[in-house]
Amino acid sequence: MTTTQANIESHLIPVLETVSDPEIPVLSVLDLGVIREAVEENGTIHIKLTPTYSGCPAMDVIGDDLKTAFTAIGKEAKIDLVLTPAWSTDWISEAGLQKMEVYGIARPLSETADKDVLLGEKKLVKCTNCGSTNTHLVSQFGSTACKALFKCDDCQEPFDYFKCLK
Amino acid sequence: MKEHLYNYILGIADNSLILGQRLGELCGHGPTLETDIAGTNISLDLIGQTRSYYQYAAKVQGEGKTEDDIAFLRLEREYKNVLLVEQPNEHFGYVMGRQFLFDVYHLLFLKELQKSSDETLVAIANKGIKEVSYHKRFSGDWVKRLGDGTEESNKKMQEAIDYLWAYTDELFDMTEADNKMVAEGIGVDVSELKKPYFEQVSTLLKEANLNVPESNYFTRGGKKGIHSEHMGYILADLQYMQRTYPDMEW
Q: Does some domain include residue A55?
């Protein structure tokens, strides 16, 4: 996993785990892979945060939530937004992907498969309600920049699909 | 050098800001829920990219200004966006036509910007290119769907392309900042994008059963700050809060 490349000091993990994505509350910032660095220097926590999408409004909220979480344990956190390397859906942890599916968002497919389903050429996205892959794209854009809207042709339930970003 | 780089960054960012603002006007007014959400999602990507550019521009300028000062507190003549992005949302054909004509350019541009010697611009380009590829797929699909749809949708799509065509050539004008930044290895020579641009656009228009306009009349001026009559209204909307409540923050 590419996430292992992130430089995160292990004693900070318990606090980081408490901060979640405001749009997908079941995912912690660690599951999402947006923390690229978290180190403590002279009592201050330095965090490098990378956005999922350029305009993702959740990033400002995540930054504030991180500061609040560290303030609660008497530490000051400094947040830096970094753009390189650009975030990829590969950085979402396996645990995160599983939580996401239970929450009702289908996990991103591989890059080629993603293209096929978004162009409506293949049916590969698994319905989060009944598990059928007899699903179709309703909208290339969903409730947030990172998702597309799908509908299951078996159980008729609409659901979100987390788009592959590489 | 510093001033040219600052102007260069604004020249890129202002296009995204104004197009993002135009798309934002449609929030809650899209023809269907899905297209409404798509328009605002694209707007969000563009404004997100704009923020990264403006933050960098503010740093380059070094006068302690913020991204908000750059976005909200300039006068019309100081915005460097092309005329294409300020054209109004007459109907959905115009919205998708404008988007498509800009997206093709935007993607070609960002691919070249990835080769810049400026690390920050490369980072923004790397991030933005993934988003813009998606935008282009969306707008291109709609141009095809409308062009190759009913007689009525074809007529309206053609009308939009014919109207917007006059604003395409300006995309490839080189400004003073462009020339200086190309010489430094930072900027993109946009004049070289003209050929692939018109090839790509023409191919898709033909696929969409639309005529490629033959008109050689092109209008320009936005890059030099000489905007169309629409720009004042856009800025009145965009700058309202900052002008009314100076220094307000969310």
A: yes
In a domain, B249, yes or no: no
Q: What is the pLDDT of residues B183-239, one digit of tens each?
A: 999 999 999 999 999 999 999 999 999 999 999 999 999 999 999 999 999 999 999
| Domain membership flag for residue A125 | yes
Q: Is A116 found in the same domain as A81?
A: no
- The answer as to whether A76 is a domain residue is yes
Q: Are B37 and A141 an interchain contact pair (Cβ–Cβ within 8 Å)? A: yes
Tell me which residue range forms the domain holding A153: 104-162
Distances (CA, A) of B169 to A93, B101, B102: 46, 11, 11
Q: What is the pLDDT of residue A1?
A: 42
Q: Is residue B250 part of a domain?
A: no
Residue located via tokens 């599916």: A101
Domain harbouring B206, CATH code = 1.20.1260.10
**What value of ipTM does the predicted structure carry?**
0.81
One domain, residues A140 and A70: no
Four-point Cα dihedral B39, B90, B191, B185, nearest 10:
-40
**pLDDT, mean of residues B56-71:** 95
Q: Please count the structural domains in chain B.
A: 1
**What does pTM read for this prediction?**
0.91
Contact A116, A124 (CB under 8 A): yes
Give the C-alpha distances (Å, rounded to integers) separating B145 from A20, B1, B53: 40, 46, 33
Task: Give me the mean pLDDT over the A112-130 stretch.
Answer: 89
Interface of A with B (CB under 8 A): 51, 53-57, 83-87, 118, 138-145, 149, 163, 165-166
